[in-house]
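To whoever is on call:

I kicked off a structure prediction for a single chain this morning and the downstream step that reads the tokens threw a length-mismatch warning. I double-checked the sequence; it's 357 residues and nothing unusual in it as far as I can see. Pasting both halves so you can look.
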Amino acid sequence: MNENREVIISAKDIEVQFRVRDKYLTAIRNVSLDLYKGETFAIVGESGSGKSVFTKTFTGMLESNGKITNGSVMFHGLDLTKLKKDKDWEGIRGAKISTIFQDPMTSLNPIRTIGFQITEVIEKHQKISKAEAKKQAIEMMDRVGIPDAANRFDEYPFQYSGGMRQRIVIAIALSCHPEILICDEPTTALDVTIQAQIIDLIRSLQKELGFTTLYITHDLGVVANVADRVGVMYGGQIIEYGTVEEIFFDPQHPYTWALLSSLPQIGVRGQDLYYITGTPPSLFNKIKGDAFAPRNEHALNIDFEQEPPFFKVSDTHYAKTWLLDPRAPKVEKPEVICNLHEKIQKMTEKGGAFYVE
């Protein structure tokens, strides 16, 4: 890792369990991650891989039947896993670490005005007058691209389109100038054109305000456009991480190969799109070996017996697969993701949906 960059938040060996019908489900299994100040880090993986649950440990927003059973999350010398009550989180959640959720329809209160919902957050965290809070709210509405913000301050969510509502959610999240912005599938409920606008808005605001962004997504197209670094999650663990270029153009874990092979943008006309066979593991059970082994056509015998460690590919790239062990047989990545750089460049030239700069 780059030792010259400032680590803004550091998660070490996080384990999260949920009690469900008198059983325990281990949703996060010993995950560690350092986020650097000012970077954009994307966590990608299938639904149920643990992406949202992991980042909820940064804001104390686990469901009532869930708890952190191991590990630490250090933020400015404070271990966030030790905070138990909502009152303990008041100076962190919303003020220092904010979240944009995926559905603007449910993120806003339908019976409160837009202005009230923004000023409520500002007043709570900044302890300023209503007049000053209103002024800041209108400025933030302008900043996120709400036209005629002053006159739309007293309108209700139903008077806004889906894209405009998501802009308001962003305004609320950024109203107290947080150091970290967590974007949990922020464009899922929006059409493709509006998705691009929202992504560009978050990126431009990050440059302007200097916060660190943590994206949660299953959309590799979004990842290619926004991320500096990428972490791939499977079965409650990060199984590979590296720069966006390393993950796209030199992936090492068979699961990452499968995700990239599933990109519809690299499909061939007239041929079936690739999909990952099988189902993710049940996290009610203790997982033996590599969680992806039952779905992995390249699995070795040891994959079913012993969990692999992280193997170093470069100073910024690590992967949790026995295929990187010096004793492992040589396995070539799928042909469909070879020369992915050239395929993506061709997509870009044709006005394709994503690119890696």
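Update from on-call: the warning came from a stale cache, not from the record. Cleared it. Sanity check on the structure: The first strand starts at residue 7 and ends at 20.
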